[in-house]
Amino acid sequence: MRPDAARRGAVLLLLAIALALILAQAVSQDRPTALPEAAGAPRMQMLPCVSYAPFRRAGETPFDPNLRIAPQAIEADLRLLRAVTGCVRTYGLDHGLDAVPAIARRLGLRVVLGAWIGRDATANEAQLRRALDLAREYRDVVQLLVVGNEVLLRRELAPEALAALLARARRESPVPVAYADVWEFWLRHGPVLREHVDIVAAHILPYWEDEPVGVEQAVDHVHAIAARLQRNFGSTPVFIAETGWPAVGRQRGPAVPGTLEQAHFVRAMLARQAAEPLDFNLIEAFDQPWKRALEGAMGGAWGLFDADGIQRVPLAGPLPTNPRWFWLPLIAVMGAAAGLMAGGWRRRNTADAAPARTDLLARSTLAAAGALIAACALLQAQALPLWSRNLWEWTSSGGALLLSVVCGAAAAGRLAQVLQYGADGVRGGVRVGIAAAFAAPAATGARLLAIAQAGLLFLAAVDALGLVFDARYRLLPWPVIAAPALLLLMLAWLGDRLPAAAREEKLLATVCAVCAVPVAILEGPANTQALLYAALLLALAAACGWIHRAGPAVVVGNSASAASSAAGAAQRVE
Hints:
The protein is an alpha/beta fold. It folds into two domains: 5-25 and 324-573, no CATH class; 32-299, TIM Barrel (Alpha-Beta Barrel), CATH 3.20.20. It has helices at residues 5-28, 71-81, 100-107, 121-137, 159-172, 183-193, 215-233, 259-273, 292-299, 327-348, 356-387, 391-421, 434-438, 444-469, 478-493, 503-523, 528-546, 560-573, and strands at 50-51, 87-89, 110-115, 142-149, 177-182, 199-203, 238-243, 280-282.
């Protein structure tokens, strides 16, 4: 018996709504967006200072002791930065960065000079001595010497040992001395450090806060924390040594990364300067691809300029639209066309006639499902190079993408079949589990669906467990499970369900379901990406493990009769 008309129509409607929501997000990226803008003279549209690290090209990383950036490359970078700021902040003096003050003098830039401090006392001594020499030689250029960056956050030195280094630097430096760390650590260790610095250099990063702040409130947050620090440290000036917003990454609470959000933050900070001047340094000049291995996709995308040196954040005027926004609707159209072609091929290769209205509904469903599968696959494919940091992540993410497409396509074909003939029709029969699929090699469609479904469930369970125990630098991979979860849930709703004997799927589905709740709770109600991911995990679990078909289960065993029975059940799926 075919599902009733209301359920058949609802399937197509729900698919259309899901697809429309995804496409609406893509199309919205092409609309012009009003952004804050600094008023007054062009100098008011210049950033007070910008963090500079030259490790933006392929293979460049500060962890390579043999890497030395050529002075010509540094000068080319600083010439680009001269258009947006009059000051650069550096973090260390290795890899050729000791040439920055000399180049900055030629270009008319000021420097916040950094000496990198860590666990190695010998390296610390070399950094400090070289930094003091440069501060003396380029006193007209170096406006501040920052001894150490987040040393306490990384727990590489005790506060007292760091204070000793700062005291020495302050005695010998011809320019003011500071230490830079996140603002909470300044409040915690201020009593030990404050007497040994001329300036409190604090990092305020609304995206990375323990309680993240949305971009609309981020500038207010920075100013509020700066005021709190100033009240705490009295006459000692406060310098916001790092603040910024990532252009890429995963949502944290209400904090959503993105090109538009990054531009909004930067320009709102500038616009606030006229009324409430704040001494701040923006992180950072150029994207740093090497940081993705440590901090996920967002770690490598804080730059005003991308890794190719193309300015991503204009400080005035309209924001360029996303030039690749149209790929998502284009891929969706191609997926819909593939679905229609598959429907036509299946219709021509079946001897059973179906009512014209039912056949049209099945074909429309295949088209909508094809568009949804293609759109979600593109979103996941775009995330692959940004989030895959090692061989396992490339393999698991790429495998999940492939399984998602295969599982979605097989489920879409089965859904069209159920709409035409019903779950118990001539071509009906229960969907088999993974064990029955291996025992029935002739039932290609059922076998493909069962294997892809089990594989996708396994990878989804691994991802979900990772997000429960170590979520900070992990992707919320909702696109990879969206299409299969919706299509399989619709199949279950129409009466086509896994047998109770599908033990592997049931176990993996239970893991996904159990993880969905803590993911949603840990990420918080403001994180819409996390809520969507958790809802899709529950939908996948419900379709693959919780909803079972009444009646006899598919039997799988070693005997010939058991294999024959499983094969017969699987063949009826086709």
